[in-house]
Specification:
The chain is mainly α and about 180 residues long. It has helices spanning about 1-10, 30-75, 80-105, 110-140, 155-180; strands at about 145-150, 155. The chain has a two-stranded antiparallel ribbon. Helix 1 crosses helix 2.
Length: about 180
Amino acid sequence: SLADIARPIYMQGAPTRLPQLRPDGSMPLLFQAIAATNMKRISRHHIDTALQFSRYAAVGMMNTLLTLGIIFICKGLFHVNPWISNAAGYVAGFINSFIWNKLWVFRSHNNMMREALKFCIGFGICYVLQFAVTWTLTELTPLQDMSWQLPGFLLSGYAVATLIGMMVYTGANFIFNRMVTFR
């Protein structure tokens, strides 16, 4: 209701209690204006967050392609250990991600070195979380022994676990960057 929406702003002002509704159920005009202002703030905040997440998702898709490309090329073409391939893919994605997130997603003009340090910390936390998910799914579930032959491509259980781990990484990393790195 309008009363619920207006309550947070109204309570910040001088009045200590909300005005009573009129007998016909309507609110005083001032109270309606306060509610409308709060609705605009909520809408703008949600729109800004949605646009920021859309930009983050676009960078994430670019990073996903880059990261997976590096992982699968290292593992599939050059027969590099899957865990070293995984790390190489994430390092390439890390560098790409920092540049695009700083300049385009979060549009930050703060100290680059400080943000780079926070970004590294967030990357480390999210990478360990992703690694734990990928390792657990690959080593401790039946996914380890599964594979699917697709036209021209063998999709292994490791690949599926990697994709799931990447989803975990993406969500955790957006939250960390929004709340800590580019604040």
